[in-house]
Structure formats: structure tokens, C-alpha cells
Amino acid sequence: MTGILLKFRVSILALVLGSALLVSPLATNAEAVGLFGYRATPYDGLKPFPKWRQVLKTYKEEPGDCQSGKYNRCAHQKWLALIEDWRELPKQEQLNRVNQHMNLFRYILDPVNWGVRDYWEIPKEFFARFGDCEDYAIVKYFTLRALGWSAEDMKIVVLQDMNLGIAHAILVVEFDGKNLVLDNQIGQVVDAKRIKHYRPIYSVNEIGWWRHKEP
């Protein structure tokens, strides 16, 4: 992560907090979900997040062929084959496999990869061009969705890494009474309670979004 992403975090936070005044919350009182020790207030709709809405609109688009075109069908087909291989595994093992496999892909910043400050990729773009932290979270999210996991049990969380002083994004999955973290910076799936240096800012899934703040 670089100062560029830190500026992205600040601009996104300002957008979200400003938009929160215009969006009706799902619940009157803050919902204390306890992620990293912070409260989460749920909101309906995804209007403040055009990049995420675009991902949801286009993530099923087919890639090009294996030899030419903008996207690599071979990598996409391999992804679909892995999903079938993992489908009958126990749930915990699915989480482990998804996290470990996606973390093998190369990390690359959006300004280098796309020539823009911030870009949210769909899976075919990730497999063709790799990506940065939110792109790992996105491809893990849709891989688990394809494996039958519920959107209600998953959130892409944008946060501040207090140790490194940078913005970051992860996938959090609620499973077996725990918030489990799938993170491109961590090799294993871990319980969120074990992580002390993350300050969540907001999180999203297909249903809505949450603003996180200290209790």
C-alpha cells in the first residue's frame, strides 16, 4: 500500500459519511457486531458505492479466448474448475482453499495496473491482470458465493491498518459463530478477534453497507 491508497481511504470515508446523511438506516439503533471491537450501523442500498455496484452488475461477464483478447478465458475456466473441485469440501476447508489460492496471485497497485487511483475488479479482470487488496477480497467473495455461501454471511471490509498506517480491504465471513478474516496479507484464515491493528471504516455486500465506529 502507498500514500495513494491512504488518500483513497480519506476520500472514500468522506463520501460514505456524507452519503450516510442521505440514506435511511436498516435499523434505528447501531448494531453491535463487534468486528475488531467496533460497532456497525447498517444501511440499506448501495448508492454511495458506484464501483461496487458496477462490480455487481458486470462480474458474470464472460472473458475472451485463451490466445487473444483483453481477458484470459483459460484462467477463468480454471477458476470455474476449482470451484467444482472445492464444492464438496467442508465449509472451513473451502475458506482455507479460497484464501490460500487467491493469495498466490501477484499484488499490483491500481495506478500501475489501470492508470487510475482506484479501480474495483471483477474476477475475470483479476485473473487477467492481478490486483490490489479489494480485488483479492472481491474474487474471494464471488468464489464463495459460487460455492453456495450466503451474501448475508460475508462483507468486504475497508479499513485502516494501524500498524502500517495505510488503507486496506479484506473479506470477513461469519461462520460457526465467528468473524473469519480472509486477507491477502495473512496466509491463513483467522478469527477477527486475533487481529488488533485493524480499524474498520465501512463494509459492503450485495444487500447493503455498514459504517463502523468505536463503541
UniProtKB/TrEMBL annotation:
The keyword Signal applies. Keywords: Signal. This is Transglutaminase-like cysteine peptidase. Residues 1-29 form the signal peptide.
